[in-house]
Structures are given as C-alpha cells and as structure tokens.
Amino acid sequence: MRKIREVLRLAWGQGRSLREVAQSLGIGHTTAGDVLRRAQQAGLSWPLPEALDDAELERRLYPGNQGRMRQRPEPDWNQIDTELRRHKGVTLELLWMEYKQRHPDGYQYSQFCAHYASWRRKLDVVLRHSHRAGEKLFVDYAGPEVPIHGNTTGQRFAGTTSRQHDTGGLGEGGQGEC
Known about the structure:
- Helices cover 41% and strands 6% of the residues.
- The chain is built from seven helices and two strands; from the N terminus they run αααααααββ.
- The protein has helices at residues 4-13, 18-25, 29-41, 54-61, 77-86, 92-102, 109-121, and strands spanning 137-141, 166-170.
C-alpha cells in the first residue's frame, strides 16, 4: 500500500520538510518529493476532497497501465531453437539482439532467456529405441575438436593436431535412450 495520503498530510497539512516526511514514513526523500510533484501536477491541494478514496488518489497520481499486463511481441521459439542448434557459434544473446532490432519494445535479455528456458522445459526430449540387448551400437558426435595432451605432463604432443571425438555404446534391450 502506498503512503500517498500520509505524504500529502505531513507535507501540506503540517508543513514538514521532505526529509522529515520521508524519515517519519520510512521512505526516501526523493520518493516523497515525487509524490508531491505528481499531486501538484494532478491539481490536488490539502485537504483532499472527502470523496477521493485511496484507489482514485493513486489513479490520479500514477495514471500508467493501471494493472493491465503489457503485451510484448512473442518470439518464434521454434525458430530460435532451430537457429541455436543449426549454426555453430550462435548464442541466445545474438538471437535476442536480432529480436530487439525487429521489436524494440520486446523482452529484455533476462526475460527473453527466462521465457526461452520455460518454453524448452515444455518439450519432450526423450527418444526411445526398441531393440534387443547388444543388437545396435549407438554412436554420437561429442562436439568440436579436442587438442591431445599428455596425461602426465599436460603438454600438447608435438606434431599432433586436434581430433574430433565420437562416443559409442551398446544399448540395453528396450531401454536405450539417446
């Protein structure tokens, strides 16, 4: 609950300074000054009209959105997910910057990431394979090239380059998941 009526009573009704008003109500003096400035702009004076309740007083001083949720353009999450998977080096931040160029009033980066993560959690990512134990070998590419280093010295082997790494394993009967 805002302390608008109390700010106005202490400042206009009792002639207190902004700092005294702020200290007695436990708010910042800039907040108290903002309330007084808004009240003057709204054409209010002390004493306030009897018919003016707290909700109407707040509406006059803060005419903004009045509780309506702001509608922001929703990104195409399928396209964003596809771009992230398709192109090496594409990040969520790059995709957000493209989104903000198209929709300047769109989500800020933190909300963009939160909405994307929420969308991703709703996807079913399990792929079940039905087979007998040892019947199939599953091989998966494990990412970009990995440099080869000695296990005792930690030094890179002379004359070697990076190698791509694949992983593989035999799935159990009927329970293999990738």
